[in-house]
Amino acid sequence: MEFLNVVAAALGAFAFGAVWYITLSKPWVAAAGIPVDANGKPQGDGSPMPFVIGIIAMIVVAGMMRHIFQMANIDSIGKAVIAGAGIGAFFVTPWLAMNYAFSMRKTALILIDAPNVIIGCTIMGLILALF
């Protein structure tokens, strides 16, 4: 059953990210420096690989978050939500910011990606606590 909880938490965060990036697709594409065609759509082959990697990454993160929650005795919704938000805000976001700084990415990119990470990790924490 725990694996299903992890998958549910991963899917919850992934679904939020889908809505987030659909809503912010134009500013994200511009901030990421992705080339676009004459219609403003990203160029490329439309490979599903980013989505495959994305869902696998979400499962890995949710699995580790579940493990951390159990080790730290995070056993309530409130604790899980705060821990999830903290993981997103204080573990993942600074690492993204550092990587973006070294790769000379636009500041707008971290301003778009960081809330997705923080809210996504919060959603993971909430779902893990609920089940």
Question: What order do the helices and strands come in, and which of them pair?
Answer:
Layout: H1 2-23, H2 25-32, H3 49-71, H4 77-102, H5 107-130
Structural notes for this entry:
This protein has one domain. The protein contains five helices and no strands. The chain has 131 residues and is mainly alpha-helical. The model has no long low-confidence stretch (mean pLDDT 95). The N and C termini lie close together (9 Å). Helix 1 packs across helix 3 and helix 4 runs antiparallel to helix 5.
Total separate domains: 1
Q: How many DSSP-defined strands? A: 0
Enumerate how many helices there are, as a single number.
Answer: 5
Mean pLDDT: 95
List the keywords:
131 residues; mainly alpha; 5 helices; 0% strand; globular
Q: What would you say about this model in short?
A:
The chain has 131 residues and is mostly helical.
